[in-house]
């Protein structure tokens, strides 16, 4: 691998694997609102939020952390305005004392918060406007959850960096492909990524334990262990689902995300961690497997886009299955076949917003990844001509990407309609 590509992969990992607290869509709204409040430098008398349907879909039904169970876009914005710290990015409300909740409730009672759907057609789009007397501040985020593209104070543009619709921040993601991801994961200087991988292991394991020890949502993680048993396959599904149980239902613990999603960050990491412990693998091998899983997940999502009707747990679960094959001693061909198998099994699970049932979808996606690995162990694989499977792993990933990005556009609209998400 040449130096430019090598450094690009390092930078992609550092950019994508960052800590976040709470579901990333409501937290992105809180961040955007906190940034607008920082610029306004006073409490607003009116708040206007214009955001894309996919943001509304993922923000309407999930609990906002540190709110004692409150849900919704208005709550997220109020938390950001009253108590957020924009300098903390996706941890914007991580340092909020729950005692401040009364102030947030008073703000929501006394300040009009208007929410409507953006018409620009950008899948990830948040525009928060704060008004105080004759002063107005607008902050807009596009394409990525903390990617501020516009800041206006009255008629003065303080910052303007709007990219083309649904573009990534740069073209580096086009350098991703399976062979180079495998080579990078197995041969890179792991010390360059050790800090973020250690943080992913620590944070994601802690929230998984939180989900298993307390009562969150539908308790999918606990149920799996109770009903199906405690072998490594069930533990992998249960611990990953438990992290989502907690995260979707108000836990204030942070996770290290992947592709802008905490659920995807947990799904790409926790099954791999569990199998590594079962197989008694070395620390270095675990780290390499996590780099492999994370990069495969990022590669797939770069083809689909940040938000879609295609459930991101599927791509992350497929990635973790591929990394599990690596942990079992698999080579490149083994890893590639596992990924193909997993995508052939589970592609098509819909994303109908962030909520308690995400934990169950995660369990299914992890199961598909593990089944795909077990299939390959037994010499059973899917090949080109089996549905959307392409001639090789990269073409299969491109096919799934096109399915999620283009083929499911109408599905996404119908989901939004059925959810009555339009304000």
Task: Describe the 3D structure.
There is one protein chain. The chain is of the alpha+beta class. It folds into 2 domains: 20-160, 60s Ribosomal Protein L30, Chain: A, CATH 3.30.1330.90; 176-418, 2-methylcitrate dehydratase PrpD (Orthogonal Bundle). Helices cover 54% and strands 11% of the residues. It contains 17 helices and 8 strands. The strands form 2 sheets. Strands 3-2-4-5-6-7 form a 6-stranded mixed β-sheet. Strands 1-8 form a two-stranded antiparallel ribbon. Helix 13 runs parallel beside helix 15. It starts with a helix and ends in a 5-residue tail after the last helix.
Topology:
Elements: H1 3-16, E1 19-21, H2 24-40, E2 46-51, H3 53-59, H4 73-83, H5 101-110, E3 112-117, E4 125-132, E5 135-142, E6 148-153, E7 156-160, H6 178-187, H7 194-213, H8 220-228, H9 232-248, E8 254-256, H10 262-267, H11 270-279, H12 283-304, H13 312-327, H14 332-346, H15 358-377, H16 393-407, H17 409-418
Helix pairs in contact: 1-12, 2-4, 4-5, 6-12, 7-9, 8-9, 9-11, 9-15, 11-13, 12-13, 12-16, 13-14, 13-15, 14-15, 14-16
Jot down its keywords:
423 residues, alpha+beta, two-stranded antiparallel ribbon, 2 domains, globular, six-stranded mixed sheet, 2-methylcitrate dehydratase PrpD, single chain, 60s Ribosomal Protein L30, Chain: A
In summary, what is this structure?
The chain has 423 residues and is an alpha+beta fold. It has 17 helices and eight strands.
Assign the CATH class of the largest domain: Mainly Alpha
How far is the N terminus from the C terminus? Answer: 49 Å
Kindly report the CATH topology of the largest domain: 2-methylcitrate dehydratase PrpD
- Whole-number tally of structural domains: 2
Average pLDDT: 93
What low-confidence regions span 5 or more consecutive residues with pLDDT below 50?
164-169
How many strands appear in the DSSP assignment? 8
Q: Considering DSSP H and I runs of 4 or more, what fraction of the residues is helical? A: 40-55%
Give me the Rg, rounded. Answer: 21 Å
Structural class: alpha+beta
| Total of helices | 17
CATH architecture of the largest domain: Orthogonal Bundle
Strand fraction band? 5-15%
Shape: globular
Question: What does the main sheet amount to?
Answer: 6 strands, mixed
